[in-house]
Amino acid sequence: MADEKQSLVDTVLSQTSNDQQLKTTNVENEELIELDEGNLLAVNENKIDTKGFKKRGENVLLSLTRDATQVLFNSLWKLPESKTWLPREKPVPKKKAPTKWEEYAKGKGILNKKKSRMVWDEQSQQYKPRWGYNRANDDTKDWVIEVPDNADPYEDQFEKRKTAKKERVAKNELQRLRNIARTQKKKVPGIGLAPTEQPSKDHLSKALAVAHKSTASIGKFTDRLPKEKPSKFTGKKRKFEPSIGNLGTEKEKQLKVLDSVSKKIPTINVTKAANRVLRQDEEKRAEDKKSKKTPKKMKGRKATLGLGKPGRQGGGNKKTRGKRKR
User: Fold this and answer.
1) pTM (whole model) above 0.85
2) Residue 233 contacts residue 192 (beta carbons within 8 Å)
3) Which of 35, 127, 185, 244 is deepest in the core (most CB within 10 A)?
4) Domain locations in the chain as residue ranges
C-alpha cells in the first residue's frame, strides 16, 4: 500500500516538472494597465517589441492578455475599505435588562461556567450527551423505581416523576414570561394556580375552586372542609329544556317573541297627530291675517285723500261726516 502511494506521488511530481512553470500573480509594469472594474475591462498599454513579432506574435499577444487579465482579477479580489461613513438605518439596540438570576449571581459573585456537552454515563460506560436524544443518565427508561421509605406504597412513582417534570417545565416557562414582562415593564396575569407575589382572598378562593374541579370526577367526589363555604367562582349551570315540551308553554314563548317584535314597530298616536294638525291650521290663519293688514304708511295716505274703511259712505273723520248730514 505504501509503495502504491509513493509511485503515485512520483508520477504527479514528474508531470508537474515536465509542464511549463506557472507564472506568479505579480505583473511587471502594472501601472501601465488601465482598469475599468465596472465593465470588467483591462487595457494593456505596454509597448510591443517589433523585432521578431511575425514569428512569435501570437505568444506575445497571449502574454499581454494574460497580464491584463491577472491585474483585473487582482483588483477584483481586493476588498477596499469604505471611506464614507453612512448613517445607521435603525437606532442602536438598547442593552437588555438582566434577569433575576443574573442580578442574584452578580450580587453573590457567582460566575457562569459553561458545561461540557458530553457526560460520562455509568450504566453504558461511555460518554453521552448531557441532554436530548440518547442522553446520559436517562431515568425515563427505567422499568422499575424504588419506593422511598416515607412514601405511600400504593402511589404511582412513574406518574409522580412525570408530574414533577411538568411542574418544572411550567415553572421555567412562567419565569421566562416574567423576565420578558419585567423588561417591558408589564405584569404577567395570574390565572388559576399561577403563583403570585401577594395573592388576594378572591385569588385564593378561585385557585381552590380550580383545584376542586381538577379531578377526574370534576369535583363531584372531592372532600370538602368542615366549614368550607360554597365558592362563587363555580360558574352557572346550564339548563336544557326537554325535547318534548308542553304546547301551552310553547305558545306563550311564541307570543312573547311576537310581542317583543311588535313593540319595535312605531305606533301612531291619533290625539297627538290631530293636535299637531290643528296647531298648524291656527298658525296658517294667523299668517294670513298678518298679510291682509295694511301698513301704517298706507293708513296715513288714505286719511289725507279722504278714503275711509270699506263699507262706510264718505269716509273721512267724524267731524266732516256730521257737517255733511246737516
Assistant:
1) no
2) no
3) 35
4) 20-76, 100-137, 155-183
